[in-house]
# Entry
Amino acid sequence: MSDQQEDKDYAYLEEWRQGDFSLSVGGFLYGAPSTDGDAFDARETTEEILGLVVITQTCDIVRRTGGRHYVAVCPLIEVKEAEIKEVAKGRRPYLASVENTAENVFADLRRPFSVDKDLLREWDRKEGFSTEKTRVGFSASLERKFGQFAFPDEFDAALKNFKDRVWSRHDKGESPPGKVYRSVDQIRFRVLPSWEAVEKSITVIAVLHPADKRHVEIKEIVSELEKQLKKVKWPEGYKWDEPMFIAQTSDYLSAQDILDSQRGDFDFLCY
# Structure
């Protein structure tokens, strides 16, 4: 096949973007234990599957070289109203909003699978997003779900009470802790010398909103963080570094502060 013919045959891919979707195109495919000695059985479920949304980056959708013959997709599912409120608060990282679907339909990021790009030719493409802001928001949801750093289990367990407090107080209207946590944009964790070391020192980096977007003075943020972080009971091998935490806007933090730290799963702070 000539390059000119190949370009013609694959011209349809130029239309597709990350977040575009198609409805009623079949079910979700997955591997299950084999019933006849094979490595696995391929199965399909159509239960609650309304359609499929493409999650592959746009640049990789349109490329046809280097073995890029497939795109990743996730199912579109209907979500109950009570859960939609939790999604809006950033508390369901496995559900991503696709602007141009119905209000109660979301991408289920827990269940990705691959399809041949030739299949896109047969689908009725629906544009996922009408604005760049919502498109970027979808990409951020993918990054949060698939790019989140996996903290050690014992670390997560030690921080559970702190995270629960941030979570529970964040939306509490005029409460002082609520104002504190609504003034924080990110909570990051820095470890020295490394997560693999036998003895580890931890520093919390609280990235604050600019002063005009904070609900309290920085001294109140410092007071709340100091009080709550002192309650953390570290397992063997962990301890607080000196300082225990840093609370600053991104303007005052160095690039090294960000590169040397991992973002905790507190993304609901952004909502």
Notes: The chain has two domains: 3-147, 153-270. The first strand starts at residue 21 and ends at 23. The mean pLDDT is 87.
